[in-house]
Each structure stands twice: as C-alpha cells, then as structure tokens.
Design a protein that fits this description.
Layout (H helix, E strand, L loop, with lengths): L3 H19 L5 H20 L8 H35 L35 H6 L1 H4 L2 E12 L7 H5 L10 E5 L11 E4 L5 H12 L24 E11 L5 E16 L6
Parallel strand pairs: 3-5
Antiparallel strand pairs: 1-2, 1-4, 2-3, 4-5
Helix pairs in contact: 1-2, 1-3, 2-3
Length: 271
C-alpha cells in the first residue's frame, strides 16, 4: 500500500507556504527554502518506510511533488514581478517646495505704567488706587494727587440767596488726578465729605481771613473745614476708599471720604 497521507501532508504544507507568501509574512527567498524543506521531509519519511520506497505510487508522488514545486516557484516569480510593477506604478514623484520663512511681527514692547502704584511716602496714586482696588476697598488710604476740578453750585442771584430761593446744590466735592490737567474723567477719583455745605466753606474762609480759628466742639470727631483747596494744587489726602461715601456720593470705581489732608504744592498763578 502506498502511504498517500504523506503526499497529502506535503500538499497541505505547500498550501500553507503559499498563504504565508500571499499575506506577506514571508519573503520570496524564504518560500523557496520552505518548499525545499518540505520536499526533504517527505523524502526522508519515505526512506524510513521501506514498504513505500521503490513502489510505483511512490514514483508518481515524487513526480507530483516536483511538478507542484515547479509550479509554485513559477507563480512566486510571476508574483514578485507583478509586485515590482505595482510598486513602480505607485511611486509618486515628490517635488521639494522652497523653504517657508515665517514673517511674524516683532514682539511688542509694553509701555511702562503711566504712574507708580505707590510713591515713596507709601501714598497711592489714582492709578495705583484703581489697580489695587480689590485689596484697598473699604479701607483707610493715603493718596497723593492734583486737584483737577472743584464742584461749584449753580449760580444764584443775591436776592434769591437772601430769600433762600436758590436751587439746592450738591454737597461740596472735588476730583483728584495724577496730573494737573487730566481730561479723562475715568482717571479721576471723587473726594467728598470735607464740608457739610458750601456756606460752611465760605464761613471758614471768612474766619481765616480775619485770623480766627474754626470752632470745633470737643469730642465731636469733626475735622476743620479745608480752606486751601484750589484747582492745580498738589495734595496728600487721608481718606476712606469705598463704593459710597457718607455724603451720598457713589461710584463703581470707588470714592474717597475725607479724613484730612496736607498741601504739598500750590498751583502757580495763571493756571
């Protein structure tokens, strides 16, 4: 009897080799080596089995193995040629583009702050007071600035003043800035609470001209009414910084409630 199972085993092994080759898991050289090894293993099995060696079926099996080997080798060569042709077709010509030079704007130079946050005497500027607003709100502060504008009540004829028929005026207040002629109102801070009304300021000025001092009841906690406020004067003021003052002034940028001042520099005439 001829052991056809050996021939079938060789045939199946050849199929596995072809599948590995098609799936690109082995190279062409490895396929040839694997076919030769399969032939050698089949031949060695036949030699070890004398009953099969020399039989007519054995010769037929060997011829079949040679034919299958030649066919697979031919298919391998054709396949390799097809792969090379496909690779050549798929090859794309790459054109090198000129180098790109980024044209980016230069890094901007940030201007320095317009004013220091605090001066050497630890007093704030208006700029610094706004910059540190969250940390200084609802606290007593010292601020150095210029009197930019002083509120003036609407004009009223003397006859109406005697009869007290003048329209009501706002409480005395002024605006401070970091420069004398500041025109931007967002850079000004309001100061109020230094006098109850304008008549009180006028009385204080008359007393000063006569060389007399203002009468302040002891223990009242009241401060002398300032008489030296003038537009252009540079002052250092002590005040309470809050959204609303005791005199009713309020602002989302904060207002100052007067607590004392010192005139550092008076405006020259003609200003």
């Amino acid at each position: 009897m001829i052991d056809w199972r050996r021939g079938l085993a060789f045939y199946y092994r050849l199929q596995e080799i072809v599948i590995d080759w098609r799936s690109w898991s082995v190279s062409g050289t490895q396929v040839i080596r694997m076919i030769n090894k399969a032939r050698h293993d089949a031949h060695r099995t036949d030699v070890l089995n004398p009953a099969i060696e020399g039989s007519a079926g054995h010769a037929t099996l060997k011829r079949s193995m040679r034919i299958v080997t030649v066919v697979l080798a031919g298919a391998l060569v054709c396949g390799c040629q097809q792969i090379k042709a496909m690779t050549a077709e798929a090859r794309v010509e790459v054109q090198e583009l000129p180098p790109v030079k980024p044209d980016l704007p230069s890094v901007p130079t940030l201007p320095p702050p317009p004013h220091p946050v605090r001066y050497e005497d630890e007093s704030y500027s208006v700029y610094g007071l706004r910059k540190k607003m969250r940390s200084v709100l609802d606290s007593d502060v010292s601020l150095t600035g210029y009197v930019v504008k002083i509120y003036e009540p609407p004009p009223c004829p003397r006859a109406k003043r005697r009869k007290k028929q003048c329209p009501p005026a706002n409480a005395p207040h002024l605006w401070l800035g970091d420069v004398r002629d500041e025109q931007d109102r967002t850079k000004l801070v309001l100061l109020g609470g230094y006098a109850e009304n304008h008549e009180a300021i006028a009385d204080a000025i008359r007393l000063e001209r006569r060389g007399r001092k203002q009468r302040i009841p002891k223990g009242s906690g009241l401060l002398p009414i300032p008489t030296d406020f003038g537009v252009g004067n540079k002052i250092r003021v002590k005040a309470r910084f809050a959204y609303m003052s005791g005199a009713g002034f309020h602002s989302s940028q904060g207002v100052l409630e007067y607590g004392g001042h010192e005139t550092l520099e008076k405006a020259t005439r003609g200003r």
